[in-house]
Amino acid sequence: MSLIKYLLFCLIAGLITLTVTAAAPGVSAAAGNDAATISGKGLTDIVLPNKAPTGKALPNKALADNTPIEKTLSKIRTIASPGTVALTFDDGPSPIYTAQVLAILDKYHVKATFFLLGVNAKEYPDLVKKLADDGQVIANHSQNHHMLTKLNDAKLESEIVTPQVIINEIIGKKPVCLRYPYGASNAKVQAAIRDQGIEPVSMGFNSFDYERRGVEKMTQWVLKNAYSGQVFLFHDKFEQTVEALPQIIEGIQKKGLGFSQICEN
Ligand SMILES: [Zn+2]
Fold first, then answer.
1. Each residue of 94-122: pLDDT tens digit?
2. Cα of 224 to ligand 1 centre, how many Å?
3. Alpha carbon distances (Å) from 17 to 22, 50, 56, 134, 261
4. Catalytic, out of 90, 91, 209, 236
5. For the domain bounded by 32-259, which CATH number is listed?
6. Residue 91 catalytic?
7. 152-203: per-residue pLDDT in tens?
8. What are the structural domain ranges in the chain?
9. How far is CA 243 from CA 53, 109, 162, in A?
10. How far is the CA of 70 from the centre of ligand 1 (A)?
11. Which residues lie at CB < 5 A from ion ligand 1?
12. 109 noted as active-site residue
């Protein structure tokens, strides 16, 4: 092609690239449930307990996270591996439900990731040990489930470090990830987590299992949004979660997807 045509081609290609690049963050922010963080306001995408899912399938929130460049260089996987989804359970261990969740995972030979609260890990060390013995990944969800963005430096460090110490005492290894409660983080919180050699992790795709919308609705919501790379957020502290889990696992398998763990240590 002539030089003029070539230059024209380069100009058009450049414009298309610019347009796509500019549009992408807006799409992610509108669709994800971590919108405030993604849009760079730096803080809080608190999902209120009564906020209902829209019923519309969302793109992979985990991929649309406020991911700093370093994450792509990290060896710690924070999204599910190709062809799989990752099941994650927050806020435990719970004396009632963790063992029930574990029994279901064992039955289906599924390995998951549990983001524990330090305060609960300290109270139920046998459950922590059982999770680890069963090959479940144990990760950090802070000590007391405070909103980390609201804490002073000392308290913030304590919320991050204390569960590391407690869990290490029980299973002999420290978590490599911390999922900040309420999905609330900012640059300071993320830096404080990384300062401890831990990877910050966002809340994942919300199953809304804390709402009492029924097992069927919850299952449909999760299955509609099950695709390669997805990280699902559940809580091992609700009966509804336990009841829905078998059909969620079977539904994911029927879609031809497997399961992988994030934050393996
Ligand atoms: Zn939580």
1. 999 999 999 999 999 999 999 999 999 99
2. 23
3. 9, 40, 28, 47, 34
4. 90
5. 3.20.20.370
6. no
7. 999 999 999 999 999 999 999 999 999 999 999 999 999 999 999 999 999 9
8. 32-259
9. 19, 17, 32
10. 24
11. 90-91, 181
12. no
